[in-house]
């Protein structure tokens, strides 16, 4: 590791290692972290993720000056393309989806480092060509043997691609250089398959060369959970079971499954989102203060939370699953899940999932964490709401506090990024009446700099070899351990409860909170 850092200039002046502080580039704009000479090889380069997120993120990084002059980008795919045709495809998607304005000079330079290699994953000859192309980039572009392989492909293709990388010599690093592999979720579909996947990749790459993407961890607002909790005095003293009634973690989407039937059907909302994004959000919300922001210290704290999770005894009462039926998205009529193109009309896949989890620690004993996610809900919103207990005594007439709800700290992950504090305030007038009000911090109003896309941050971190924002295989396994019994229970239930598109999910979701004396927030 040490030699590869030196090779790519990753150790900063004063011996400070950038991965010791994941908040650094948000905090210290005078010292932007710039990747060293390297290339990114994308498998699955014509897929949706690559078109909408990866290629635009690479361009945005280049445009922000965070990629080195000697950067290469290699697309690997089945299309019969020349490099120029690949570059035209990349340009079209960059123009359509990048965050920063299109700049001809940036593009020209990026394009000079682009290559396309045509091939199938099981074609040894194609990998030989890839190896040759990588060497040419080393020679002509100065990428110095540093290459990251992005597996934007279905997990069933991981074994063959890993083997090809190994047998073509591409996984091998020369002294002073590095090879890294980036794996997209889903990391398996249960604990056993996740372990198998890990074994396969582990045969080819060392653990510290494997970067698992959970793109929620790349979001500014998610990293801000650490800043909010551990840079301030006012939140942490009340962040525990003495004051907190319950926590609601929501990731709601208004869109349906789009063109992703092949991926989504049989996977469902819980495996797609709860197993990764929502459990990571829960771990960051519930964990103790880490010794430092180094990857190992963060992992240690997240692992403790995930290990302390207890499932409800009665999964029927404390979980909910639903499937959207025809309804509305805004003013547009939309079809139900079973009518979506490519979906088995008898599919029992859930498009909505909600679960209650408890964290058996002194800090959180008796505080339920409710996690919910769904497609075709009323609105696109992701948030973490820490809802507080009522004050033990209210020295007012009963009528004065009729309108007073529970205090809450709401971390607004997206789309309106920021934090809301909800508390009671006196309404103006001669009577003492208290009503809920909101105090808002908004990224848009407080900062002039727009937040980078999650994939910008994560691709940059891979090129820098900076691991804190990537879940470890241990975290992934623990997350499957939590989800597997729920999936097993649901598998015996048959058809999920329908909910109309554009509403907030199945009735069971409301019943499950009502059973605990709570109700879902309406974001
Ligand atoms: C992905 C899921 O991980 O996150 C998708 O596979 C989902 O189903 C997407 O639509 C949402 O991401 P974001 O960043 O828009 O909340």
Written account of the structure:
- One of its GO terms (biological process) is glucose metabolic process.
- Catalyzes the oxidation of glucose 6-phosphate to 6-phosphogluconolactone.
- GO terms for molecular function: glucose-6-phosphate dehydrogenase activity; NADP binding.
- It holds the Pfam family G6PD_C.
- The active site is at residue 277.
- This protein has 523 residues and is α/β, with parallel strands linked by helices.
- The chain has two domains: 4-184, Rossmann fold, CATH 3.40.50.720; 217-392 and 473-514, Dihydrodipicolinate Reductase, domain 2 (2-Layer Sandwich).
- The chain has 17 helices and 18 strands.
- It has helices spanning 2-7, 24-27, 48-63, 83-97, 104-112, 124-140, 158-167, 191-202, 220-230, 261-264, 268-286, 295-307, 315-318, 443-446, 454-464, 473-491, 507-514; strands at 38-43, 71-77, 114-118, 147-151, 179-184, 210-213, 244-252, 309-310, 319-325, 327-329, 332-334, 352-359, 369-374, 381-388, 408-414, 418-426, 434-442, 497-500.
- Strands 7, 8, 9, 12, 13, 14, 15, 16, 17 and 18 form a ten-stranded mixed beta sheet that branches. The protein has a six-stranded parallel beta sheet with strand order 3-2-1-4-5-6, with helices on both faces.
- A hairpin with a 3-residue loop joins β15 (408-414) and β16.
- α3 crosses α4, α8 (191-202) runs antiparallel to α16 and α11 (268-286) packs across α16 (473-491).
- The protein is globular and about 80 Å long.
- Residues 1-27 have low confidence and may be disordered.
- 6-O-phosphono-beta-D-glucopyranose binds next to α11.
